Structure prediction request, 283 residues.
Amino acid sequence: MKTVIITGATSGIGFAVCKEMLGLDYNVIGVGHSKEKIEAAKMQLQNEFLKKVTFFQADLMQQSEVKRLAEELSQHLDEHCEGKLYALINNAGCVRSWYSTTEDGYEQQFALNHLAPFLLTHYMLPYLQKDNGRVLITSSNSHKMMRMHWKDIMYKKGYNPLMVYKQTKLCNMLFAYAINDRFSQSGVMAYGIDPGLVNTDIGLKQTGGLVRLIWSLRKKKGVKPEIPAKTYAWVCSQENTPQGLYYYLCIKKKYSKQVNRENADKLFRISEQLCGIKFGGYI
Ligand SMILES: NC(=O)c1ccc[n+]([C@@H]2O[C@H](COP(=O)([O-])OP(=O)(O)OC[C@H]3O[C@@H](n4cnc5c(N)ncnc54)[C@H](OP(=O)(O)O)[C@@H]3O)[C@@H](O)[C@H]2O)c1
Prediction:
């Protein structure tokens, strides 16, 4: 049975992806932030699919937590999954209204939406390589409206929450590009997934009045999370490894010209420094 790890698995798109993957008989490992939500999600999934679902808990904003999670996941994969991981779905994400930092001193949207996938993928790479694995990252069409803000990547000066969010979604695409450049030869492929506009509560969690108001109106136009969940399942279940970088509604889509080798390499180097690692032994 193929194993998939899904972050942000307790609500919204991630929870719907868990259901889709369980329906296709994958061995699903969810990662959640809150113990209560993990218990609720686990109960609901087990009742619906009548099979065991394993969850791990971590605050992915903090690098020490990503490291601890990776150690727990590694032990689990070694003991129960033949040391193999077929897919890592980096989906957890957040929106913030103002500049706030993590324990590591990094801006929170940048830390959770980009650095956490970067670091977790680094730790999971040996397991993915053993199963010709796929890395899926929840990006967004909004990546097309951005350029990298290299001179102040975490927007310490002149914080604009929307720009910061969009930049993290561009980072997701650049990271997927960088993985393919470095690891596709070893059988690991990465994809940016555009879920479209989805009716979730992302803009209502730890945000201020204006963001909450805008999102509560905007989300009503969004589709149910079950719609984008099918794209994740499609990318994972294609027998012939999909060769595109960016998918929306199970179809390969054009991505921004900003998603190029120069930007991908630059972000990769900066991310290695910010995480204090040498990713997979490569520059
Ligand atoms: N909704 C859209 O229209 C849309 C469009 C494009 C892209 N996206 C992307 O889709 C992804 C999922 O978002 P969503 O819309 O499904 O919203 P969501 O329901 O709020 O999902 C976000 C997930 O991330 C988890 N999370 C938040 N902070 C965390 C932390 N510090 N550590 C670990 N996990 C944490 C949340 O946990 P809890 O369940 O405990 O809150 C939740 O499960 C995000 O990457 C988002 O950027 C969404």
